[in-house]
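User: Fold both of these, please.

Assistant: Here is the first one.
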Amino acid sequence: MTARLLTHLRHVDLAVPDYDKQLDFYSGVWGLTKVTEDSGISFLAAEGSPEQYVVRLRKAEEKRLDLVSYGAASPADVDTLAEQLLAGGVQLVSQPGKVDTPGGGHGFRFFDVDGRTIEVVADVEVRQHRRIEEKEAIPVKLSHVVLNSPDLNRTREWYERHLGFALSDTLMHPRMGEAMHFMRISNQHHSMAIARGPHTALHHVSFEMRGLDEYMRGSGRVMRAGYRKIWGPGRHLAGDNTFTYFLDPHGNTVEYTTELEVLDEDTWHPHVYDFSQPEVTDQWGTANTMNELIAKESFNDVDRGVFVAPPV
C-alpha cells in the first residue's frame, strides 16, 4: 500500500439529461444549496461543510458519473501523487495545475482501474459554512460514495496500492461470496465502498445529517415529497451508521445517514460480515427486508463515462 496522500472526499459530479428536474431535487427537497450556475452546470453545497460544493450537476445527453473528487493536504502532495501514479502506469487525464472550479486550487485528474475519472485537489478556498441547528434536516456534509465494480478485489487492490485506501470491513453472502468492501482514508469507517455489480457504475452517494432526529425528519420530508424510497430507515452493522436510500429523478441512489463509526486505526482489524443475517444489514429491524430486487436498484445504468473524461 502506498503512503496516504488523500485527506477526504470532496464532491461527486453527475451528468444528467433532465438537468432542471435534477437541480430542483438536489437544491429543493434534498436540502443542498445552489452556489453558482452557468451554462448547464450547477454547483451545490452542503450548509455545514467547508467544501465549495459537494455535488456538481452537468446537463448532458447521456447519464454518467463525471468524476469523484478527493482532497490532499498540499500542492506538493498533489504533485507527488501524480508522479507516483504515472510511475505506476496510471493514465492521467490532466497534469497537476490550476483548477478552474469554485474555490480554485491545485489538482489533476486520472482514470481508476475501472475507467472512472478521479480528481485530487489541494488549496481549495474554504467556503463560509455554519453549524446546522437542532431539527434542521439538511445535509451537513458529503459522507461517502459507493462504486459498483464487476471485479471487486481488483478495484480494492488498485485503490490500496495507488491511493493509500485501507480496508475497514467486508460484506459477504454464503451464495454470492464477497459483495462489498468498505474503504477508508482517515479514521472515518469509510469514505468509499466498492460493491460487486454487473458493470461499472455509481452505486450511491451518501450525505451526513446532524443527528438521528434530523436524519429521520429529512427522510420523512423526501418520502412525503413522493420520491421513491428503496430501503430504510435502519442502521447498518458495518460502519454502525443509519440509512435511508432514495432514487433521484434519474435513478441514481442517494442516502441520508448519520453517526458513521470513527475507528482507532492503530487497533482496528477488518471484519467479514454475512449480510444474509438480518442484523447485519439492519441492526434495528425497522427497514424493509433487503432482497435481490432492492439490490438491483443500486446497480444503476451502465456508466457511459468509462475511460472517457468529462468535457469540463
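And the second sequence with its predicted structure:
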Amino acid sequence: MRKRRSLTALRAFEAVARNRSFTLAAEELIVTRPAVSKQIKLLENELSCTLIDRSSNNIQLTPIGIELYVGLQQAFDLISATMERVSNQARVSQGIKILVERDFASSWLATQIGQFLLQYPGISVEITAEKNGHFRMQEDFDFRIFYGPQGTYQNDSLQEKKLCHWIDLPLCSPEYARTHITSQGFSENTHFLLDKNYNPWDDWFKYTEYENPGITDFGTVFNETTLCLSAAIAGGGITIGDSFLALSAIQAADLVMPYRYGLKSVETYSIYHQKDVKHSTEEDIFENWLFSTISIYQNKVDQYLLKNGITIIDRS
C-alpha cells in the first residue's frame, strides 16, 4: 500500500531547492518563511534524514536532498502535463451544441456529421432538432441553424451568416408519375402534398407554363417537408422538395422530377452565433467544416440538376 506523504511539505522543499532560498520559496508559495522552514523540518523528521545542509549561509542540498529534488521535479512536471492534458480534454468534451431546424437536421446534417466526427475525433457534437424559428434563447447553444429570408432573425444578440440556398423541385414516386403526371400538366385526380410552413407551389406555377389547378383547396397538409417527401416516396402524391433534403432520394430513384423546372429559393439556410462571444477553437473548426461541406454539396446538387435537364429559375 502506497504510503502517504505531505504534499505541502514536498512542495515547500521543492520550492526551496529550486530557488536556493527560503525567502523566495515563501514568496512563491504565499506563506511565511518560518512556515516553509517548519514544513521542511517535518519532512526531514518523516524521512529520518537531512535534506538541506544548514552549516553555511547558502542553501546546499545533501546528496539525499538532491535525489529527492530531482524526483520531485519529474513528478511535478508530470502532474503539470497531466493536468493540462485533462483540462484540454475537458474543454473538448464539452463539445459543440447546435440547435437545428428539424428537416435540415434529419435529412442533411445527420447524414454529413459522421464525416466531421471521423475527421475530428476529439470534438463531440450535440445536435438538437427544433421547429424553424424556435431559437430557445434561454438555452446555451453555440450555433443555431434555421431557414428564412436573410435578416429575418438577426437581432442585437445574434449574428447571421448565410449557409446556402436550395432548389424547389416538384417530386413524386416513379409509379405515381406514370399514372398521374403528364407532360402537359396535372391530371384531375393529382394529389398534392403540402408543407404548411413552406409552400412555394404558387411561385412554381407563376414561373412555369403550367396552369395552377388551385392546389391549396385540396391535398394533404403536413408540418414538415420531410413528411411530405416520405408521403411522396410512398406514392401518396406529388410535393415540392428542397434539393438539399431530397437529392439522396432522387439519386436512389425513390423520387423523380416529372417536370423540367426548379426554382432557386428566395429564402436561405443561415447559421447564427451569439454576438460579442468569441468562437472557441472547436467552434471555428466546425464552422469552417460546415461551410466547406455545404459548398461542395450545393455544387453537387446544381451539377446533378443541370446534367438531368432541369432548368433552374432564379426568382430573386
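The first helix runs from residue 7 to 19.
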